[in-house]
Amino acid sequence: MTAAPGPAQPVLEVEDLRVRLRTPRGPADVVNGLSYSVGPGETVAVVGESGSGKSVSVLALLGLLPARVATVTGRALLQGEDLLTMKPERLRQVRGPGAGMVFQDPMTSLNPVLTVGRQLVEGIRAHSDMDKAAARRRAAALLGEVGLPDPVGALDRYPHELSGGMRQRVIIAIALSNSPALLIADEATTALDVTVQAQIIDLVAKLQAEHGTGVIWITHDLGVVAGIADRVLVMYGGRCVEDGTVDDVLENPSHPYTRGLLGALPDLAQPAVDGVVPDLVTVPGVPPAPTDLPEGCVFWPRCPVRGDARCETEQPPLTVIGSADVALPHRAATWCTEAAPGSGSTATPVAPHAGGGSR
Ligand SMILES: Nc1ncnc2c1ncn2[C@@H]1O[C@H](COP(=O)(O)OP(=O)(O)OP(=O)(O)O)[C@@H](O)[C@H]1O
Ligand code: SF4
Ligand SMILES: [Mg+2]
C-alpha cells in the first residue's frame, strides 16, 4: 500500500539564527534568534526598517559574512542539509542550484573584468553538462527574459558598460540560471522601473510554478509584498516581531511596530485639504543600535502603547494570535495587543502591486 503523501518538506528551515558581529564599538547582536521556514513554491517577504538585520540574516545563511568578524549560530536546513555547518566546498556547490541570491548592491556581485556572457555561461556550465554554445544560448535567453535589450550583444559587454538597472537584471539572470531550490532576493527590484519590476516578478513566479522554488523576498515596498508574498516576516532589532500570512499581517497587524510601518504608507487616494496634502504618519524615534539593544522589549523606546510592566524588562516571545490550529499561525512578540488611539491600529490594507502575482 502506498503511504499518503505528507505535508511538503520545507525548502529551508531556519532555527534560532543568531549573528554577532565584532565592531569597534563592541559586539553587535545583529540577528537575535530568527526562526522561520520557506515551503516549496512559497514566497516569504521580509520587511523592516533599515538596519533591522534583513541582509545580514540572509548573508549568514549562505556563509557570506567574514568569519573573523561574524559569529553565526543556529540551524539553517536547506533541503535537509545544514548550511551553517557545511564545508566551504559543499557550500560553493550549493550556491547556484541550491540557493541563488540577488544582492542589494549589484556592483559587488559582478566581476568587473569578465564579460556578462562569461559570468553567466560559467555559472550555467559549473552546474550542468551543457556545452559552451548551448550555455551561451541559454544565457542570451535568460537576459531576454529579464528584459535586457539586445541580449546577444549584452553577452560581450563588461559590467561597467551597462546601466545600474541593467546590471541588476544580469544578476537576477545569474541567480535564476540554475533554477535554484531557494531564491533570496534582497531589494532585487528596488532600482528598476515598475514595468521591469513586474516582468521580473512574473519570471520568478514562473520559476516557482515550474520548479517549486521557495523565495525569500526582502523589500521595503509593502505594495510588492501585498502582490507577491504568501507569508510576511517583520523584523525589528534583529528579531522577528510579527509573522503570519500576508492577509493576517497586512490586514490585521498586531505588533505596534507593524502597525506603525503600515501607518507610514503614503495613501495616494487621500485628498488634499485646502490644497495641503496631509503629512505621512511616521514611527517616531530611531531603531536601536545592535551594540546597545534595550533590555526588555526591543521596540520599547519607541512604542506608543507600552503599558505592561514587563515591556521595559523582558523581551516578549513570539506568541500565536487567534487560532493556533492553522498551518501558518499569526504570531507577534508583544506583551500588549491592545492598540492606543492614533497608534496606527486601523492600518489600511495595502493595495496589491501592479506587478504582483495572482496569489
Ligand atoms: N560588516 C559589518 N560590520 C559591522 N556592522 C554591520 C556590518 N554589516 C551590517 N552591520 C550592521 O548590522 C545591522 C543590520 O544591517 P543589515 O544590512 O542587515 O540591515 P538591513 O535590514 O538589511 O537594512 P537595509 O534595509 O538598509 O538594507 C546594522 O546595524 C548594520 O550597521
Ligand atoms: S511589549 Fe510593550 S513595548 Fe513592546 S511592543 Fe508590546 S506594548 Fe510595546
Ligand atoms: Mg539590507
From TrEMBL:
Residues 338-359 are annotated as: Disordered. Signal peptide: none annotated. Pfam families: ABC_tran, oligo_HPY. It comes from the Bacteria. Belongs to the ABC transporter superfamily. The keyword Cell division does not apply. Residues 12-262 form the ABC transporter domain. Its main location: membrane. This is ABC transporter ATP-binding protein. It is a peripheral membrane protein. Keywords: ATP-binding, Cell membrane, Membrane, Nucleotide-binding, Transport. It is found in: Cell membrane. The keyword Membrane applies. One of its GO terms (molecular function) is ATP binding. InterPro entries: AAA+_ATPase, ABC_Ni/Peptide_Import, ABC_transporter-like_ATP-bd, ABC_transporter-like_CS, Oligopep_ABC_C, P-loop_NTPase.
